[in-house]
């Protein structure tokens, strides 16, 4: 996937676990794992908003685009 | 609300199961009549009255033969149709009817419905004396419309299941 989710890096920088984030944003750990491992096909604006609020970051910090090949 | 809907599905399922048994019964009856006529005397059976009794014996036997073959063919189309219908009902009761299998099942039901109507209409038009007015000899217009409706539904289920799969991977 050319668009990568930088959730691991952000969590690491903030010394936060996936479980803590799940509690704060109200998304299940299962869904956050799907997002983290890059298996998600789409992301809701509401999810993006909640994660950005919890991690105090911009959408650009969370998502990264890389050209293939 | 949800409970009522589930109840409706259970009732439908029971009705379809009953229809399955009825079809098997009719097919068995058709087979018995057909086999009975093969080594019969050529006289119509005394249990039959009405139109058949008023026919001459040879015509009555021919009508019974065509009728029993028609019943067997119609049953052969109807049995898998009802089986697929039960599978669709079961998947709906489980809470997720928008799966690719159901689109495939509906398409199969469409073809089987066409075959069933073809069997019934052609048998009826062969056995009964021609009536006045415009009649479609093999498949009635309403049956064709029903078949088209089922095919459209199959397409709807196909895109529905695609949307459902996409939603599943949406976080």
Short précis:
Chain A has 69 residues and is mainly alpha-helical.
Top keywords for this entry?
heterodimer, A: about 70 residues, mainly alpha, two-stranded antiparallel sheet, 5 helices, 2 strands, globular, B: about 170 residues, elongated
Number of helical elements of chain B = 5
- What's the order of the H and E elements of chain A? EHHHHHE
Mean pLDDT over the full residue set of chain A: 90
Shape of chain B: elongated
End-to-end Cα distance of chain B? 29 Å
Largest sheet of chain B: none
Helix content range of chain A: 55-70%
Number of strands of chain A: 2
Quaternary organisation of the protein chains: heterodimer
According to DSSP, the number of beta strands of chain B is 0
Give the averaged pLDDT of chain B, no decimals: 85
Which range does the strand content of chain B fall in? under 5%
Main β-sheet, spatial strand arrangement of chain A: 1-2
Count of helical segments of chain A? 5
The secondary structure category of chain A is: mainly alpha
Distance between the termini of chain A: 11 Å
General shape of chain A:
globular
Q: What about the largest sheet of chain A?
A: 2 strands, antiparallel
Query: What is the rounded Rg of chain B?
Result: 21 Å
Q: Helix/strand/pairing class of chain B, anyone?
A: mainly alpha
């Amino acid at each position: 996937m050319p668009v990568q989710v930088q959730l691991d890096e952000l969590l690491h920088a903030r010394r936060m676990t996936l479980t803590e984030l799940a509690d704060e944003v109200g998304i299940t750990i299962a869904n956050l794992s799907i997002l983290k491992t890059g298996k998600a096909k789409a992301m809701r604006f509401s999810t993006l908003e909640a994660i950005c609020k919890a991690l105090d970051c911009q959408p650009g910090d969370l998502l990264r685009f890389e050209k293939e090949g | 609300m949800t409970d009522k809907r589930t109840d409706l599905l259970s009732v439908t399922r029971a009705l379809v199961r009953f229809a399955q048994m009825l079809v098997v019964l009719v097919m068995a009856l058709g087979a018995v009549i057909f086999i009975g006529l093969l080594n019969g005397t050529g006289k119509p059976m005394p249990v039959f009255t009405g139109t058949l009794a008023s026919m001459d014996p040879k015509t009555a036997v021919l009508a019974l033969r065509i009728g029993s073959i028609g019943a067997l063919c119609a049953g052969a189309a109807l049995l898998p149709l009802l089986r697929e219908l039960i599978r669709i009902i079961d998947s709906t009761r489980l809470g997720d009817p928008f799966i690719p299998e159901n689109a495939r099942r509906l398409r199969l039901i469409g073809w089987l419905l066409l075959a069933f109507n073809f069997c019934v209409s052609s048998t009826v038009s062969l056995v009964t004396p021609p009536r006045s007015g415009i009649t479609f000899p093999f498949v009635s217009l309403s049956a064709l419309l029903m078949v088209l409706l089922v095919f459209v539904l199959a397409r709807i289920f196909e895109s529905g299941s695609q949307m459902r799969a996409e939603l599943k991977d949406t976080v």
